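Researcher: Next entry: Mannose-specific PTS system EIID component (Escherichia coli).
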Amino acid sequence: MSGSLLGPLLFFILFNLVRLATRYYGVAYGYSKGIDIVKDMGGGFLQKLTEGASILGLFVMGALVNKWTHVNIPLVVSRITDQTGKEHVTTVQTILDQLMPGLVPLLLTFACMWLLRKKVNPLWIIVGFFVIGIAGYACGLLGL
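Model: Predicted structure:
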């Protein structure tokens, strides 16, 4: 083997120098920030930060409920044939979508929140939604 012994030695020294410096200053920085957080806990800053994060989380969950939850109620309210012979069907879902899109998922979310406040087991809520969905589809009250 040919080569200089200076390469591995230089790598070992510089690598450990950077590692130890980062470790020392990182611990010192973390300690000082931890002391600052403990001081801020008494001033109410951490409570405000936690409350703000909770509000943001609830906002995001509300947006996800509207985006990912879809309930279709295909019950026909009226059938009208226009002058050209084209039939227009009005369903409960079209009426609800005209009033407020996503109204039924919103009501289901509020029902879940109400049941959770009444200390109902979340597993029973999920099973209940499955039963309501399957029975509603079998009866023709709910569609895909």
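Model: Note for the record: Residues 68-77+89-143 form one domain.
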